[in-house]
Every structure is written in C-alpha cells, then in structure tokens.
Design goal:
- It is a single chain.
- With 351 residues, the chain is of the alpha/beta class.
- The chain folds into two domains: 160 residues, 2-Layer Sandwich (Nucleotidyltransferase, domain 5); 171 residues, ATPase, nucleotide binding domain (Nucleotidyltransferase, domain 5).
- The protein has 13 helices and ten strands.
- The longest helix is centred in the C-terminal third of the chain and has 34 residues.
- The radius of gyration is 20 Å and the shape is globular.
- Bound molecules: adenosine-5'-triphosphate, magnesium ion and fe (iii) ion.
- Fe (iii) ion (FE) binds next to helix 4.
- Magnesium ion binds next to loops.
- This is tRNA N6-adenosine threonylcarbamoyltransferase.
- Keywords: Acyltransferase, Cytoplasm, Iron, Metal-binding, Transferase, tRNA processing.
Amino acid sequence: MLVLGIETTCDETAAAVVRLDADGEGSVLSNVVLSQVAEHAAYGGVVPEIAARAHVEALDHIIERALAEAKTPIRALDAVAAAAGPGLIGGVIVGLTTAKALALVLGKPLIAVNHLEAHALTPRLTDRVPFPYLLLLASGGHTQLVAVRGLGDYVRLGTTIDDAIGEAFDKTAKLLSLPYPGGPAVEQAALAGDPLRFSFPRPMQGRPEPNFSLSGLKTAVRIEASRIAPVTDQDVADLCASFQAAVVDMIVDRTRAGLRRFRDVAGQPSCLVVAGGVAANHAIRRGLQRLGAEAGLRIVTPPQALCTDNGAMIAWAGAERLLAGLTDGLDTSPRARWALDPTAAAAGKKA
Ligand code: ATP
Ligand code: MG
Ligand code: FE
C-alpha cells in the first residue's frame, strides 16, 4: 500500500510517500523536507505565526514534489496521513486540513497521526524492530522515555520536568552567542573543548523514576560564563564540552533507570531506539552505545533524515495504522496537546 504523509507540527514543512508491502517491509519512495530554520534563526527559536504562514505557502509544492519524486500518481495513493498533533496549532491545522481535502477528493481514508507515535514507530520502517522496545525521544520539544509495547500501546516511563534536551542545547547556544539551532553548534564547539574544566551538575542522578531535568544545568552554564570576561573561543569550547558531558551522563543514567522501569511494564526490550533531532549528537550516541554494551541491548538510531521531523515517519505510522484498520473521520480535530500515553496525561505530567 502507498501512503502520503504530511508533517507541519513545528518548523518543517514535509511530505513523503511510503510503501508498505504485504510482508511488512517498508520503503521510502520520497521524503521532501523544507526547513524553516532560516526564517526563525533571527529570533533564536520557532515563532508560531511565522511557522503557520510558511506552511501555508509551501505545503502544496512540497506535496507535489513528494508525489513526483515517488513517481506516484495521486490516484494511486491508498490513504492520506497527516500529523494531527501535538504541536503548534496553526501549523497542525494547515497540514490536517490539507490532508482532509485530499482524502475527500480522492475518496481515500484519512489517518490522523500522533506526531510522537510517528517518531516512536519510525525504527520499524528502517530496521523492522519488533515490539516491545524502549524509545528515547529527544528533540527540541520532547524528552521522553517510552515503552513501545505495540501499535497504539505506549507507556510513558519518564519525561522532563522542565526543558527538553534539544531546548537546553538551543538555550545554551544562545547564551554563548552560538548560532541557532544550538545542538549542532554546541557539539561542534565542544570538539575543541575540555569537558573537565567546569564541573556542572548531573541533575536527577540515581533517582529511580526515569525523569530528566535540564534547567539547572543551563543556569549553571550561564553562571560560569558570567564569571569569565572577556569570554574567549576557548572558554566557549570548554563550556560547551563540559555542558555536553553533563548532558551525556544524565541521559545515560536516566535511560538506565528507564530500562529498569521498562522491565516492570513490558518485560525484556528488543532494543533501545533513539529518535528526535538530539539523536544526531555523537557524544550522546557514544554514551548510549556504552549503556547498550553494559545492558546487552542493541541500540537503534534511524538515519538522521528520519530522526528529525519529516513526512516519511507520518506516512509510515499512517501505513501501520491503515493495516490495522485504524482510520479517522473527516471531523477529526487538530490537537495542540496529545499525549501518547493517556494515563500519563491524566496524571497531569508535562508532555
Ligand atoms: P519536535 O520536538 O516536535 O520533534 P523539533 O523541531 O524541536 O520538534 P527536531 O527537528 O527533531 O525537533 O530536532 C531539533 C532539535 O534537535 C533542536 O533543539 C536541535 O538543537 C537539536 N539537535 C540537532 N542536532 C543536534 C546535535 N548534534 N546535538 C544536540 N542537539 C541537536
Ligand atoms: Mg524541527
Ligand atoms: Fe518531532
């Protein structure tokens, strides 16, 4: 089956065509992503109104390109999937409404995909990962450890109590006058730095509940930076290296705690999947590889283009849902907030 996927929840306008064969094998026929990074760079973060307008301008062309690159006539599609949340509501409305119009015109099913579910299922597109597995989702907006037990069956084991990990990279970059997005800039600067020069805190270390906390670490960087004047390139490199080392230690420790919790709710995981833009970070990957070796667990990181926001992950989640007979009505509403695990949402924890 052929599914078109549309992603507009944040600052990427994206569309893709994915095929799911009868034997469960998935393939990406096209994956077109237009990043709005340049539009938001001047503000050091995503501006919702600018994002929504940019999605309106770009989406038609992006969909046309995705269909053309996939050499798929629009009538050959079996379904149209769009991210229906969680995310910036203006963008979500653009993507979901476009998907509804296409589904209506084509007479094909609409699949309203949870953006987080799409991140969670992506490793099954490239690596055919079996359920259950542990997911570490780390991006600019999300930091979660999730037990993926089956399609639509997710238990959130832990999350951040303040900033997301990617957000902490972005804020640290901003206060050190490094470019946006901050993750790649901090990682690059850290290459030339001394990770031992500053001993930043390792928040939540050793706690049994697998939650994260980043804001204290970010503040510690600000305090150390304010003590140095003038701040040289070497100081910036050392601050970045020390910050990154603290983040890696925390991620490894928190994921270890998540693994323990996982066994209580889902048994033995088939692997640990790392997704979201932060998964690009090599120091974090190395830290998790060490944890994997220690725990006898395979670490799976989908290719970078599928780790950051994209249309293929939406199309793939749509295909998995379509196969399971899970389609949505044209009256489906866009959702700014949409927890993967309804019990965690009911408990009032932050997404
Ligand atoms: P969402 O949270 O909805 O998935 P997003 O746009 O914030 O949306 P992504 O596009 O997946 O998420 O990832 C972007 C984030 O990843 C940014 O915060 C960026 O700084 C961070 N990031 C990217 N590369 C790196 C890196 N090498 N090291 C650390 N963080 C990185
Ligand atoms: Mg993004
Ligand atoms: Fe995302």
